[in-house]
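Exercise 7b. Backbone tokens:
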């Protein structure tokens, strides 16, 4: 009698040469190794193990972290829109380097059917590449093997190398690769309008980004503060206005604080002041290059707020079509 023996095939290990994650203060943008773009609100929250969580929650990642260094063992947390609904920690209100493990792990999404992933090089970006202690902290959280469930799917992710590059560098690489600058033989700039801070970086024709051409600027957090301090209804609230809610109202273009307070008029009054401060600081920081400056590409989630720059400069300042993802797309080209 012939016996039939079943041979079990070994699980396929997916290998990605590069994965890029831009874990910002308001949004997490990722370009996974297969080119898939992921966008999640940059909010994280602990999950009660007895909560009945929804399936396939949009723009969210529900994580049960088993083993590794990105989070505590056997911890449960959610990143994204559901975390926002749960009143979680908005990244701009904390120290981003301390949250990097959770934010980045949530942004890694292998294709359906893949359970084991090796990432040869994980590329991150940071506003300050001289902050060595923060970079070390991020690398320590992410290097190595991570075992966790993402939306109920068990994953083992092995991150073999972590590289940190300056913010705006990815956007510049994408712009150069796609001929987005008309005058490539002149200095050009990237203006990244973000949540907690904004950054203007000038790039020379050689591609060098001189430290003297880097200007740290106020983000929409500052604009939200200006609105909170000047809106006649918000200043009369019993509690200090939640700046995150004001920023949400700006992002949605509804300009509502809760259900009853509309701050549109105050927003329209304060926006030119916020933009004026940014423009003044950029002119001052780039003074020695202004006569030769080609174009300034505006990126980041808040870039559309600066449309007046486009009009005032006759298009020399321009908003990237993919302003929300251009930086991480360029990082993935590295």
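Sequence design result:
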């Amino acid at each position: 009698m012939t016996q039939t023996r079943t041979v079990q095939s070994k699980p396929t290990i997916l290998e990605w040469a590069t994965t890029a994650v831009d874990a910002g203060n308001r949004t997490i943008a990722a370009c996974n190794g297969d080119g898939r773009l992921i966008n999640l609100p940059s909010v994280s929250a602990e999950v009660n193990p007895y909560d009945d969580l929804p399936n396939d929650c949009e723009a969210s990642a529900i994580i049960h972290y088993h083993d590794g260094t990105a989070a505590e063992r056997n911890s449960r947390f959610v990143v994204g829109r559901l975390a926002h609904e749960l009143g979680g920690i908005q990244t701009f209100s904390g120290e981003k380097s301390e949250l990097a493990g959770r934010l980045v792990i949530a942004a890694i999404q292998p294709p359906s059917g893949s359970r084991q992933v090796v990432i040869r090089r994980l590329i991150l970006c940071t506003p300050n590449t001289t902050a060595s202690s923060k970079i070390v902290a991020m690398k320590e959280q992410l290097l190595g093997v991570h075992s966790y469930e993402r939306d109920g799917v068990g994953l083992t992710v092995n991150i073999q190398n972590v590289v940190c590059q300056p913010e705006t560098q990815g956007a510049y690489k994408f712009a150069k690769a796609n001929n987005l600058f008309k005058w490539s033989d002149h200095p050009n700039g990237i203006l990244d309008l973000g949540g907690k801070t904004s950054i203007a970086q000038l790039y020379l024709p050689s591609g060098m980004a001189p430290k003297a051409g880097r200007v740290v600027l106020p983000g929409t957090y500052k604009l939200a503060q200006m609105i909170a301090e000047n809106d006649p209804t918000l200043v009369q609230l019993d509690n200090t206005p939640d700046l995150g809610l004001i920023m949400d109202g700006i992002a949605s273009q509804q300009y509502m604080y809760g259900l009853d307070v509309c701050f549109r008029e105050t927003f329209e009054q304060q926006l030119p002041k916020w933009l004026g401060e940014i423009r003044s600081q950029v002119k001052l920081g780039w003074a020695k290059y202004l006569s030769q400056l080609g174009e300034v590409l505006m990126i980041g989630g808040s870039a559309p707020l600066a449309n007046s720059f486009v009009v005032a400069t006759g298009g020399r300042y321009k908003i990237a079509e993919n302003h929300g993802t251009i930086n991480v797309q360029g990082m993935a080209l590295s």
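Instructor comment: The mean pLDDT is 93. The first helix runs from residue 81 to 85.
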